[in-house]
Amino acid sequence: MVNKITVFKHGILPKPLRRRGWGGLNQGYTVGKQKNKRMKKWLGIIIGVCALHTMFAQGNKKYTISADIKQCKATQVYLTYGTVGKSGIDTTVVKDGKFVFTGKVIEPTPAMIFTPDYKVKIDLFIDNGVIKITGNADSMYSYKVASNLPVVKEFELFHQGIMQNRQNTIALFQQAYELKNAGDSIKAAEVQKKADVQYKQEFVMRKEYALANPKSYVAAKELLAYTDGANLPIAIEGFENMDEKIKASAMGKELEERIHILTNVEVGKPAQQFTQADVDGNPISLASYKGKYALIEFWASWCGPCRAENPNLITQYELYKNKGFDIIGVSLDDNKEKWKTAIAKDGLPWTQVSDLKGWNNIVGLLYGVRAVPASFLIDPNGNIVANDLRGESLNNRLKTLFP
User: Fold this and answer.
1) Which pLDDT score is estimated for 42?
2) Confidence at residue 87, expressed as pLDDT on a 0 to 100 scale
3) Which pLDDT score, from 0 to 100, does residue 86 have?
4) How far apart are CA 389 and CA 373, in angstroms?
5) What is the largest CA-CA distance in the chain?
6) What pLDDT shows up at residue 316?
7) By the 8 A CB rule, do 131 and 156 touch?
8) What are the residue ranges in the chain where pLDDT is below 70?
9) How many Å apart are CA 279 and CA 324, to the nearest integer?
């Protein structure tokens, strides 16, 4: 494929141009007006043909992902790709552990391949070109992603480091468990401490990679995953240092939008106002809680940690509801019956709202919620004074507010 003209550099011209009186390299192309017009005409034709050739080749370039996974019993497999906010999904059949995906992306994109039972789960980056995957469904550490595509190779190298750290962490936890069962509690505690450090190392690795590679799509993915309310200042710094090309990518744009959202719900900022329907369809507005300390509690019926925290929330609600404290539950459910059943089973006495759009709940999006439980404590003036309070941290904060 030719995408630039090099014949002038070497003084060699195509025959049609030589026949029309083009001079050599050292003649400076001093030709008459008619010859000059013809020169421009032929030059335009050549450039146009080359440009069309390049555009055609690029426009038709696709990715091909072929996999051979031993011990894979599934009959179908999924490929999901894109950013958190905008993703696509494809499916294909599996025969004797082999399958192929084909498609096209406009830029390097994070992806995941998985079977319905998640026995096969492979993280990777995709770009237009050839990608080959091998592995064994009986071992999550066996998957290898091979390609000549730079971003695919980069992510695979980074991901293998993450998986090695994870494997070492699990081995330490297992060792601590066995020592404890054997009665050696002192040695078990020592190994457990090492395991905890090893576990935290993965987050350190991801953070360092995200900040150290401003020209990398892989780093952009890690920075996007890292960005939350607690890490917002670091995330902003990382984004500002990003290469302009990465900022303009889908991940870069989503990161910028996430930073914008989280900046709006920082501690000290006025709470984002909303109105949403309760279980009976009545509109409930956050503005109606003005004059009280209100805890916006994001949860869902399917969220185990959320349900586990509910008894403590009930205790705190009963202690302080007559002193100026209230709770408004915002559910990320998408099934009304399951939502109502959970409220009744857990005996939640405060107002609950939801638009039943799951993770696309408008209030959840407004507050940048990507994991539950999540919470924001609003003061009587409508300002955010704390976030993600639960357990003793919530109890102690309420004690200081209502001595």
Assistant:
1) 54
2) 87
3) 82
4) 10
5) 99
6) 97
7) no
8) 1-60
9) 24
CA distance 91 to 220: 26
Instruction: Annotate 150-175 with b (16+ C-beta within 10 A) or e (fewer).
Output: ebbebbbebbeebbebbeebeebbeb
- 3, two tokens: 């995408």
To 10 degrees, what angle do helices 185-212 and 217-226 make?
120
Interacting residues of 47 by C-beta distance below 8 A, sequence separation 6+: 5
Cis peptide before 150 (omega within 30 of 0): no
Q: Position of tokens 């066996």? A: 142
3-state helix/strand/coil string of the chain: CCCCCCCCCCCCCCHHHHHCCCCCHHHCCCCCHHHHHHHHHHHHHHHHHHHHHHHHHHHCCCEEEEEEEECCCCCEEEEEEECCCCEEEEEEECECCEEEEEECCCCCEEEEEECCCCCCEEEEEECCCEEEEEEECCEEEEEEEECCCHHHHHHHHHHHHHHHHHHHHHHHHHHHHHHHHCCCHHHHHHHHHHHHHHHHHHHHHHHHHHHHCCCCHHHHHHHHHHCCCCCHHHHHHHHHCCCHHHHCCHHHHHHHHHHHHHHHCCCCCECCCCEEEECCCCEEEHHHHCCCEEEEEEECCCCHHHHHHHHHHHHHHHHHCCCCEEEEEEECCCCHHHHHHHHHHHCCCCEEECCCCHHHCHHHHHCCCCCCCEEEEECCCCEEEEECCCCHHHHHHHHHHCC
Rounded Cα distance, 8 and 288, in Å = 75
pLDDT by residue (tens digit) across 199-249? Answer: 999 999 999 999 999 999 999 999 999 998 889 999 999 999 999 999 999
With 0-12 / 13-18 / 19 or more C-beta atoms within 10 angstroms meaning exposed / middle / buried, residue 11 is exposed
Classify residue 82 by burial, with Cβ atoms within 10 Å: 0-12, 13-18, 19+.
middle
Instruction: Please give the Cα distance from 201 to 195 (Å, whole number).
Output: 10
Per-residue pLDDT of 21-80, as tens digits, reads: 333 333 333 334 444 455 555 555 544 555 444 444 445 689 999 999 999 999 999 999
Please give the model's pTM, rounded to 2 decimal places.
0.77
In angstroms, what CA-CA distances link 382 with 103, 327, 402?
Answer: 49, 14, 18
